[in-house]
Design goal:
By secondary structure, this protein is an alpha/beta fold. The protein contains 16 helices and 14 strands. The strands form four sheets. Strands 3-4-14-9-10-13 form a six-stranded mixed β-sheet, with helices on both faces. Helix 11 (232-238) links the parallel strand 9 and strand 10 (248-256). The chain starts with a strand and ends in a 7-residue tail after the last helix. Bound molecules: pyridoxal-5'-phosphate.
């Protein structure tokens, strides 16, 4: 069945949303094979977002760790500073083709809200962003950016007033305004066809890695790895390697203060199968099956679930998922900054941290590619505070 990954995925939504999902699926199936759509998307990727992003050989990092060769896939160099622009440009273009005039989006830390507001400004669309009240207070700068870009930010006070509540609210709101509105979902999660649309748009990452690696080394890498929140930069990094059995796929989850504590967001390590946000997948839940509050130092990884395609790749054993704690991610954030002069997003630092563990155990002729999902400017004040410093934003 379409939109299933083993037992995961599906469309667990109220009947009132089924029409909207069907309309989106039909439109997407048409436009993904439409050469004009693909040309326009490529032009936006290249001229606006700055693609292709570089595949950079991290010489110093490799030498210091003393094992496998490490390459960085530089999604942090994209316009707006992360991989999220790939997804929003594609969805906004699709929405435009469908005759929609309005984008709605959810956001946690505000990164996807800013990306959506950016795409809406560029494409002359209205934009409404649902954001938890708690997050609005924590992320004032991103709220300002969204408003500067012309978007309206709607506070969500239900539940814990954070990302999961913003997703629920955006999905509900979409049901009331589907005729002129597209729901620009921010990760490879939610009901079919969202996980497939977001994956296809982010798959440009692995397509480029493959081509760039053939030029640089004349062969495929041994490991590709990325951090996993909902899983969009990771599935984009994995996609064109799924059918290459010689390439190991590793997703790095946010363990927060540790997988043996309640302050964690490591879904594969600590979660169970459940149904939430329109999909079957793994979720962090309490003993009643309610969604558990999750925690990570990294706002972008602070989601209680994981995309259904990752859940399927985990079940089949094709991909491996590892937990990385706050402390390990912060150490990697500092280490990459010092060794390569690259300040990674704290999300991306989770993948760097795991590479620091495995690279020294691998032979020097092996190759690792780490996707740097974003840049770390946004995290500097928080990390300084975490380390006990006083830095005011
Ligand atoms: C949002 C975000 C993530 C997490 O989202 P995925 O869908 O798991 O990729 C990771 N890194 C950065 C920089 C982000 O902004």
């Amino acid at each position: 069945m379409e939109g299933r990954f083993g037992i995961h995925g599906g469309q667990y939504v109220p009947e009132s949303l089924m029409g909207a999902l069907k309309e989106l699926e039909d439109a997407y199936n048409f436009y993904k094979n439409d050469p004009t759509f693909q040309e326009e998307l490529t032009r936006l990727f290249n001229d606006y977002a700055g693609r292709p992003s570089r595949l950079y050989f991290a010489n110093k990092l490799t030498r210091e760790l003393g094992g496998a060769k490490i390459y960085l896939k530089r999604e942090d160099m994209n316009h707006t500073g992360a991989h999220k622009i790939n997804n929003v440009l594609g969805q906004a273009l699709l929405a435009k083709k469908m005759g929609k005039t309005h984008l709605i989006a959810e956001t946690g830390a505000g990164q996807h809200g800013v990306a959506s507001a950016t795409a809406a400004a560029l494409m002359d669309m209205e934009c409404t962003v649902y954001m938890g009240q708690e997050d609005i207070e924590r992320q004032a700068l991103n709220v300002y950016k969204m408003q500067l870009l012309g978007a309206k930010v709607v506070p969500v006070t239900s539940g814990t007033g954070t990302l999961k509540d913003a997703v629920s609210e955006a999905m509900c709101a979409w049901g009331r305004c589907v005729t002129d509105t597209h729901y620009c979902l921010g990760s490879s999660v939610g009901p079919h066809p969202f996980p497939i649309i977001v994956r296809d748009l982010q798959a440009v990452i692995s397509k480029e890695i493959k081509e760039q690696m053939m030029v640089a080394e004349g062969r495929l890498p041994d490991v590709v790895m990325a951090c996993v929140g909902g899983g969009s930069n990771a599935i984009g990094t994995f996609y064109h390697f799924i059918d290459e059995p010689g390439v190991r796929l590793i997703g790095c989850e946010a363990a927060g203060r540790g997988v043996d504590t309640l302050e964690t967001a490591a879904t594969i390590s600590t979660g169970d199968v459940g149904i939430f946000h329109g999909m079957k997948s793994y979720f962090c839940q309490n003993e009643d099956g309610q969604i558990a509050p999750v925690y990570s130092i990294s706002a972008g990884l602070d989601y209680p679930g994981i995309g259904p395609e990752h859940a399927g790749l985990y079940d089949s054993g094709r991909a491996q998922y590892v937990p990385v704690t706050d402390d390990e991610a912060v150490a990697a954030f500092e280490y990459l900054s010092r060794t390569e002069g690259v300040i990674p997003a704290i999300e991306s630092a989770h993948a760097v941290a795991h590479a620091m563990k495995i690279a020294p155990t691998m032979d020097k002729d092996k190759i690792i590619v780490i996707t740097l999902s974003g840049r770390g400017d946004k995290d500097c004040a928080a990390i300084a505070r975490y380390k006990g410093g006083k830095l005011y934003e």
